[in-house]
Amino acid sequence: MQEPRLTPIAFIVLCFVDWAGQTTPYRLKQMVAASVGNFWTLQHAQLYTEPERLAQAGYLTEQRDLAPIFAEQLAAAVNGTSWRPPQPGERKVDWPKHFSRVGNVDALVARRHEPARRVFIELKCDYSPKGLHACAYDLVKCAVGLALGDASASYLVAANIKARWDEQVLGVELFDGGSWTAEKIRETYASAFRGYEKLADPRPEVIPSTMTTCAVGAPARVDVAGVPWEIRVCRVEAEPACWFGWRPFLTPEQTAFAVLRRAQRR
Fold first, then answer.
1. What is the pLDDT of residues 44-69, one digit of tens each?
2. Are the CB atoms for 244 and 207 separated by under 8 Å?
3. DSSP structure string for 102-124
4. Is the Cα dihedral 156, 161, 163, 169 positive or negative?
5. 125 - beta bridge partners?
6. Among 32, 70, 133, 243, which lies 20 to 30 A Cα-Cα from 25?
7. CA 13/CA 16 separation, integer angstroms
8. pTM for this one?
9. Cβ neighbours of 151 (radius 10 Å)
């Protein structure tokens, strides 16, 4: 994919995102109006289209671009219903024996008067095939949450350019629906999980032996900077009766060496 041209608007967006951490186009508009907007004229619509273009090119990540917007839209969708957005700290999960140091789920809603009924949502947004490969990691994460009773339902949401979906790259099948053994997931997505281990990221330890996905609705199609994208959703199911002991791909020494080499290249 051709490297995008970084315009003055692109630099404004990147600077404010770097300063604010997580933000949304609406907040970008507010920050611009209170600062450079006093002496620089720009169209507000650009603050909505430019983050999408930069995310497509890899300059913005799902954590900085997709997740905050999704959280705002999700909160608006459940407003006035029997569901509510997460309370502070509620997205954090802790499964030391099953998926240690896993951190937060990307999004969550819960019943207002039934706190045990929580829905986990994991997001992936990437223009490269690796974005869909990585959905296997989130599948396992969702399955563990379901099997342990931390979630009553769980969903995967992935956005990628339409060409990746049409090419049937690895990961698309998860959104078509099907059933997989934990061993099959480990074998099929070995490169993705090995990549996480090289980063010393959290890894599975004990997971459900079988996981199932079911497509939800039709794909949503949007254009991002003139490139067709698709967003697909699938529901995750897991059986808590039988567990699978995950085997790491790398030794602790190999992981440490990979982390050291990565640090030296920076």
1. 666 666 666 666 665 555 665 566 76
2. yes
3. EEE-SEEEEESS-TT-EEEEEEE
4. negative
5. 159
6. 133
7. 5
8. 0.76
9. 25
Residue 40 burial by CB count (10 A; 0-12/13-18/19+): exposed, middle or buried? exposed
Backbone angles phi, psi at 122, to 5 degrees: -110, 135
pLDDT digit string, tens, across residues 118-153: 999 999 887 788 889 999 999 999 999 999 999 999
Count of other CB atoms within 10 angstroms of residue 140? 27
Express each pLDDT in 13-41 by its tens digit.
Answer: 766 666 665 566 666 777 777 776 666 66
Show the tokens assigned to 99.
Answer: 């998926």
Report d(CA 62, CA 123) in Å as an integer: 8
Grouping H, G, I as helix, E, B as strand and the rest as coil, residue 252 is: helix
Measured between alpha carbons, how far is 124 from 150 in angstroms, rounded to an integer?
21
Tokens of 171: 């990961």
What the block records as the tokens of 92 is 């954090």
Give the pLDDT score at 1: 44
